[in-house]
Amino acid sequence: MLNLQVIYKPDELPENISQKDLVDFLYTHLESFGDAPSAINKAIDYAFSTEKGKGGFLILAFAEDKLCGVLVMNKTGMEEYIPENILVYIAVEKSMRNMGIGSSILKKAREIADGDIALHIEYDNPARHLYERFGFTSKYAEMRWQKKD
């Protein structure tokens, strides 16, 4: 049986799970589609922020008391011209994929998010099909300019 826990602040984390554990989980299970642990940690810090325009939430998924999925949602603070939320990370333990865990997490996130949700995904990421099934569409192509030192 799957148990989903919504976390809004660090003191709501289960006793046996630290923020570092979540960073490690996401870093491991995002595989080649992830970011550095420092970036993942910043996204979690942002979700836990109480500063105006910041905040968000995490969703932790447990199967038989074992962590098997994590989602990080950040508020953008830019309602009306950019979606109010950005789904920064969602990962399911590799051995438990294709069992509906990602769908359950994403469904819960849509239920509790206040406003629209955006996400960035690489074209070759197999999770793209999950997002499309949930009604996410590709509205823009993201372009980036990187400042060189």
TrEMBL record:
InterPro entries, per the entry: Acyl_CoA_acyltransferase, GNAT_dom
Upper taxonomic lineage: Bacteria, Pseudomonadati, Candidatus Cloacimonadota, Candidatus Cloacimonadia, Candidatus Cloacimonadales
Name used for this protein in its record: N-acetyltransferase domain-containing protein
Domain N-acetyltransferase: 11-149
One Pfam family it belongs to: Acetyltransf_7
CDD domains: NAT_SF (cd04301)
Entry's Gene Ontology molecular function annotations: acyltransferase activity, transferring groups other than amino-acyl groups
Superkingdom of origin: Bacteria
